[in-house]
Amino acid sequence: MSHIYSIVDYYGIQNVSKCGYCKTKEGHKDHGMWLYYLTVADYQNLIDRGWRRSGDYGYKPITHDACCPLYSIRCSASDLKLSKSQKKVIKRFNRFVTHDERRKWHGKDGNSSRDNMEVCFEQPVPTNNIECAQVTISKQVIQVDSISTMQKPIQVPLKVEPSGDANQGPRHPGKKKHLRMERAKQRVMAKGKTEQEAIEILKAKKRYPKPRTLEDLLNDCEKSEKAHNFRIEIVQSSPPNDRFESTFKQEYALYLSYQVNVHKDKPEKCNENQFRRFLVNSPLEPQYVGVDNAPIQKFGSYHQQYWLDDKLIAVGVIDILPQCLSSVYFFYDPEYSDLILGTYGSMRELLLVRELHRFLPSLQYYYMGYYIHSCPKMRYKARISPSYLLCPETYSWQPVIDCIEKIEQHGYCRLNENLSIKDENDVTNYEPVLILHRHNILRYSDFKRECEKEDTTDMKEYVRSVGRKCAYSMLLFRG
Ligand SMILES: [Zn+2]
Fold it and tell me: How far is CA 439 from CA 24, 431, 463, 470, in A?
């Protein structure tokens, strides 16, 4: 059986002319590489080193001198603690499905359409396509001259979030019950018990309700009598399965409407090809999960489609990897923006992680892309709790709550305060780094012998940016 390798072409450090978040001219710099072919294990290692993909293009922001430092952010789905605001979003959606009820929104998470900025940019297109099935390269020379024209995140006007407090909502169905419980608790505590003991006593008497889980809340819209039919479908987008092909036109129409109405893009910018390059193409090679009855049979790239009465109203673009679900993008029908579908979609994706976790114990995280503290639209990510930021020096995950103050003070900082912790995935030995050169897989030293003239500076930069594990397992394409 032949071994399947990832094949990448490193483009070096790219300048981003203008920052899409704070609008300064300095912007920041990214490592960039073309991802011809990627195993799910290699991609897991790459995102754990700060990389992300947009279509077939991979990038990793250089954080230390950026105007707006970007930190990768993930949530541990099995430990999820829902905020009041998040519960309200779910209940609001349930009321719509069961009673066709729609109201004005007053919640804290407001209409902060889930942030999609970081991944929404034009990617460079390789000038030559290589066939990458199991190291069969059809054309050797790849010219990389289109990269300098690369543009960075589209600018989305930053709206100030509505400042409404969770208690100012239109109605509070659980409030009386909450007061009753509170009084019962106080009565027990008056007899000399601690708060925790009082809760335990009431729970034993079944007078203190168990907190409702994400599953309980989301399943509430599945009642038998309801005003609308709502269902979610996971379709494999790359390679596209039949269901994906047959719903493609509807997805594209929804995407166009979302980009034009929500992001104010020009329609000609969002043509079908752009949609495919950005959200359908994926370098990920599907790989069997190896467990029967799991919600999906393969790791890889999917679209999660939200159908309301047979009308497509939202799509979540996701990658399912050995340890996480990585959210790529989310778009929805602007007609339903009062349902806060961005936040609702995050909750659904978290639920999927929890379902997958039951079959695949090591899959337990929800990756939300990058977190930029100075960007108010991103704060919703830190409110999905408990969340962690990736330390840009040790590549260890640190609780968000321990990081916020440091970031507020310094902008960029090493998040792991323990100075004895080193980057475990650092490279000191370049010998085993793999290079694909003229159809041959070479080790770094052999490649250097063969191509004496080749400047290997950017190769070392590549090795450090992807880390040891990936540098030793992926093939760096050098024509
Ligand atoms: Zn900036």
Answer: 44, 19, 21, 20
